[in-house]
Amino acid sequence: MKMLRVWAPLVLCLGMAGETVACAAQSSQVQQQATAATTASDADLEHATWAVDLEKRHAELIERNGPGTNATLRAKLLKMRDEDQATPERGLTKVDPKEVEAYRAALNLHATDTRLTAELKEIVARNGWPTIALVGIDASNAAMLILTHTRDHAWQRSMLPQLETLASKGKIDGSALATVVDKELVSEGKPQRYGTQFKVMDGKMAMIAVEDPEGLDARRASVFLMPMAVYEQLLMQMYHMEVSDRVASDR
């Protein structure tokens, strides 16, 4: 992750009255930059701490479940993940429905998602959901990525009870499942649970409404997602766009 650092020098305001006003304005801008830099710096530190904790969690899951017993299926799922990610960043949800559809059509993402969904359905039919014990944590999370991007919301919805049970038993990575849960809730017009879904509103990124906002960070921590403030800083660095204080509707 690119680290954001801004050095804020001491500003001396000397001279005529007009110059003093101009200097004071510059000082205010520098102070704002310094505040933003401190926030970003703190977020970087929190992100690093969270990443270490997540790595430990993954190590625990691997120790409990093993590296996976089906090497052939693991290789297939990792290949599917690479195909899914071969296109440019999928970006934020619902920037402009017409533009999103045109963008996806131009990249043929619909066809890719449909094909990968069909392949994942076949895998699940033959082997059950790809758990860590079966294919290893990376390939198990690759399967979750394909499910996240599927256009078959009915199938996605039908898988959630089973996946939530597997996550509660430590058989899959709960942090990977959180995005699927949120996308499904949003698709149903309901508040999301973990705050993973944003959309652009008035030139800024706005989080789509969540259930029980006060308990959001606790829910995120329960599935090893980074704190919301850290996630927002990461989004701003990735998309070069501010996060809005407003909450977006899910429509």
What features would you describe in this structure?
The chain is mainly alpha-helical and 251 residues long. The protein has a domain at 67-187. Helix content is 64%, strand content 3%. The protein has 10 helices and 2 strands, in the order H-H-H-H-H-H-H-H-E-E-H-H. The protein has helices spanning 17-65, 71-85, 97-107, 109-127, 132-135, 137-149, 153-168, 174-187, 216-222, 228-239; strands at residues 198-201, 204-207. The protein has a two-stranded antiparallel ribbon with strand order 1-2. Mean pLDDT is 78; it is low at 1-38.
Question: How is the topology of this model organized?
Answer:
Layout: H1 17-65, H2 71-85, H3 97-107, H4 109-127, H5 132-135, H6 137-149, H7 153-168, H8 174-187, E1 198-201, E2 204-207, H9 216-222, H10 228-239
Antiparallel strand pairs: 1-2
Helix pairs in contact: 1-10, 2-4, 2-6, 4-6, 6-8, 7-8
Q: Order of helices and strands, N to C?
A: HHHHHHHHEEHH
Query: How is the quaternary structure best described?
Result: single chain
**Rough outline:** globular
- How far from one another are the termini? 31 Å
The helix count comes to 10
Assign a percent range to the helix content.
Answer: 55-70%
In terms of DSSP E residues, the strand content is under 5%
Strand line-up across the major sheet: 1-2
